[in-house]
Amino acid sequence: MIKPRLILLSVASLFISTAAHASLESQLSQCAAIQDKLDRLICYDKLSSSLGPQTKTSMTTEAIAVTAPTAAVALAATTESSVEDSFGKVKKAEEDEVSKIYLEVDKVTKDPYGALKISFNNGQVWKQTDSRSYRIKAEQKVFIEKAALGSFMLGTDDRNTTIRVKRLK
User: Fold this and answer.
1) Regarding beta strands 116-120 and 100-110, do their DSSP bridges make them parallel or antiparallel, or are they unpaired?
2) Which residues of the chain fall below pLDDT 70?
């Protein structure tokens, strides 16, 4: 036999939880109906604080602690490297960024597909990415400039043609 008290207690708890759930849904829909962003946020904050105490996670403080040293290392690395060393490497756009550099060719070789592989006196190595024919010699002064969509063009001042290149080293 089931005791009447137990049945009454379970029915009462079911009724209370259903009413509380409906109340929460109605409060959420009232907050969602608010047009002003700030007032809507305040409404959601009040609603969340009324639900119970929140436990703060240490994840946010760990993320801040990890981010700070990383930013310091990145800042130190960019200040130490010269303009020529950082040219052609993928990084975030800056306002005072160099868009064209002049370099002297040290050595020119071709890969099995006929693309040029150009080594410069400063140690950089660039490779041709398009299939155009282009003549270049050692000890020749060339420029590399930024082109559309993060690509780079190699050319000389005395010719009107350029080739598309990418940095290898």
Assistant:
1) antiparallel
2) 1-2, 6, 8-9, 11-22, 52-81, 90-96
Cα 63–Cα 68–Cα 71 angle in degrees, nearest 5 = 120
Residue 87 is predicted with a pLDDT of 79
99 with 145: CB under 8 angstroms?
yes
What pLDDT shows up at residue 53? 63
